[in-house]
Amino acid sequence: MQNWFHSHPVITYIIILCLVIYIFNSVFRVQRLPLIKEILVHLVMAAGAFVLFVFQIDKLPIIQCMSVAVIMMLMLRGRQLYDKWKGKGSSSEPPADPSNKPTR
């Protein structure tokens, strides 16, 4: 697999850039940024992806490690969706007891 990535550098860089953007959007993005800041962030990610690309060409398993991280994030998202779907069918909270009124 490393030999294939080494012989296809453009595809390797695009894969790394896509993984970096997905990880950033999944983990670090809180809200939308203004357009100029958004462009600046993506340019910095492109530069960082180039550094990771150089490490990948030097035979480090960058794509494989980032793929594992993305798979784990997708598993977490799937589990969250499953818990949300499972919680809709039955209420996980016990019904409120009207005799237990809080006292002041």
TrEMBL record:
InterPro entries referenced in this protein's UniProt entry, alphabetically: YlaH
Keywords: Membrane, Transmembrane, Transmembrane helix
Segments crossing the lipid bilayer: 6-27, 39-55, 61-78
Keyword set includes Mitochondrion: no
Superkingdom, taxonomy of origin: Bacteria
Keyword S-adenosyl-L-methionine: no
Segments of this protein annotated with the region Disordered: 85-104
Cited Pfam families: YlaH
The name this protein goes by in its record: YlaH-like family protein
Organism: Paenibacillus sepulcri
